[in-house]
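Support case: user asked for a sample of complex input and structure output to validate their parser. Sending the pair below.
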Amino acid sequence: MSDSLKPGHADVLVGLQYGDEGKAKVIDIIGDRYDIIARFNGGANAGHTIETSKGPLALRQVPSGVLLDKCTLYIGSGCTVNLGMLVDEINMINRLGIDLTGRLFISSRAAVIQPHHLEVDRLNSGHIGTTMNGIGPCYADRALRMVDDRRVSISVGDFLRDSESAIAAVSANAVAYGNASHLTDRVEQIKAAVSQIKPYILDDDLYMVRRVQAGANVLFEGAQSVELDVAKGSVPFVTSSHTIPGFAYVGGDLPPKYHRYTIGVAKAIVSRVGKGPMPCELGGEQSATYCAAASLTTGTREREKKEYDPKALLASSDPFDVGMALRILTGEYGTGTGRPRRIGMFDLAQLRDSVALNGVDMVFINKCDCLGLYALTQQGTIPVVTSYGDHQKKVLNIKGFAAFEADTSAARQFSDLPNQLRDLMSFTEEALGCPLLGIGLGPSRNRNVVRLDLLDGSRPTP
Ligand code: IMP
């Protein structure tokens, strides 16, 4: 880590499946090799959890490098910002004894979530199953720019330059929407947040370029995942921003000439929240319908834990039950929303396409320890999707491994892994055509096998 005369480089880390692959954990592991960790898309729809000595820290908008005290945290122009929620997040981080002054910068060009965005998203969310954070309507207003004589595209920098006019514009948009009293309350919340946010706003388009030219290394942190890209994902069941690595150099305010590696993060227990295709889903349509209905209520995690015996479900012949058991046992519920996630088989066919389409150089696979649970199923094997040829799913059943926890707790390198898992990971590398940067064997920082040496060196020639 240094700002020297030699220009630095940028790596881009993205999720390769449907979001929630454990990107924040990987950033926590590799982040000390970088000077800047930057977000380039999305906003409070993201939920990134980092394990700290004081318990899990759930981040929504602040980049995941908060625990790395030498790291600059940058929120790029491609992001949306909910000012009130950001103040709450900064205060939560402050309470952990972490001061973000001089470390956190928000591009003045980032778009502001306005009260009516939340309302529009709330009313329309059902069809897609959005997180209801107003992200889609905010990006839509950015593209609309003006409606009649009203400016609907409001950026963070508008509050820096002329806070009163910016508040007036936000109010005018709320009034045009219907001026419901709770929208007025939300305008007041924005007003209250502005003074606390101002010190973090950066009105300097060249900031990232200058830092990298001076030697800083950047890690771009993707939110959501490539399958949820607004154009390249499973449209329309996607988020409203570009999540693919190429967009890091638009929304992250740096020219692509500094790009070095693209790092993909996936997990062995695949999950998806919201609607949309998920060909590897355990229980298929039944699971999708159940999760959609359960997402409309709160407390599903507690209810499922109380109502079901996951070990009995695991032994069922019905894949829907197996999916539910894996959700309960591996904690697959939305960080921000608490929604139950749909659960799928380890899907090498989807991953292989994601890797190829996005030029991924290396992959970190989380939740490999959870594959051990398949040993408790009726078949005792791990189902792995290997292709979708002729619209027919091909599933390979690999022998499961028992007593998994005991087998991996001491694993520090690939050779320490149980034979079956090591073989599965070699098979995965071959199928994906790129090396594995790491294997997650538990949520904590030290329960992973990582090949940090893959991050040494310069951009490989294609
Ligand atoms: P939106 O991003 O709130 O508009 O939601 C659109 C779709 O993206 C929905 O299916 C969400 O569940 C999904 N989505 C948004 N953010 C995340 C995330 O951080 N992880 C997983 N899915 C997400």
